[in-house]
Design a protein that fits this description.
With about 70 residues, the chain is mostly helical. Helix content is about 95%, strand content about 0%. The chain starts with a helix and ends with a helix. It has one domain. Keywords: Membrane, Transmembrane, Transmembrane helix.
Length: about 70
């Protein structure tokens, strides 16, 4: 759900930024591109956290199996 929301926001900010840059120039719409980039970086961050949680849970399962 979080990733879907960030993809939608990132795409929307990018499209609005492109539209605004045609009319007002890139310096005026720069903040929209930065918000878009922040959304896409947030996606990478969430994916990395989920990957770490998966690694921790799989390693804890393997250590419990070894102890028994």
């Amino acid at each position: 759900m979080k990733i879907t929301l960030l993809v939608a926001l990132g795409a929307a900010f990018f499209i609005i930024g492109v539209h605004q840059s045609f009319y007002f120039g890139i310096p005026t719409s720069y903040w929209l591109f930065m918000l878009s980039g922040a959304c896409f970086l947030g996606i990478q961050y969430i994916k990395k956290l989920e990957e770490q949680k998966k690694d921790v849970s799989s390693s804890s399962k393997s250590t419990t199996k070894k102890k028994k």
